[in-house]
Design a protein that fits this description.
The protein has 106 residues and is an alpha+beta fold. Helix content is 20%, strand content 27%. The chain has two helices and eight strands; from the N terminus they run ββαββββββα. The protein is elongated.
């Protein structure tokens, strides 16, 4: 996973009506881009509780840095272990299922 800091002023489209068609939304984004907008913050129609951004101008992006990094061991049926490179721990599928309250499948 990479983490990239973003620093800029964005047009806030979170209050746009959900009834806007995809064509209307794309046209609005295109118009803002052509006006020099750095990007937009919006609520995707498909996920009304999510806040998303679209960056139009790369100048608002800082340098990316490595964040969490994992190795997943797939046995052909399920992920059996997850190795966390940041601290060297390895967690098994059974441990994850126990912690989540689910039962491990045989």
């Amino acid at each position: 996973m990479l983490v990239t800091p973003i620093n800029g002023t964005f047009d806030d489209l979170r209050d746009r009506p959900a009834s806007m068609t995809e064509t209307e939304r794309w046209a609005l984004g295109d118009a803002l881009y052509k006006q020099g907008s750095k990007g937009v913050i919006f609520t995707p129609n498909e996920h009304p509780r999510v806040r998303a951004i679209t960056v139009f101008n790369a100048d608002v992006l800082g340098s990316s840095a490595q964040a969490a990094h994992y190795r997943f061991l797939w046995d052909g049926v399920a992920i059996r272990t997850i190795y966390d490179f940041s601290d060297g721990t390895e967690v098994t599928r059974d441990e994850l299922l126990v912690e989540s309250g689910a039962r491990a499948a045989a």
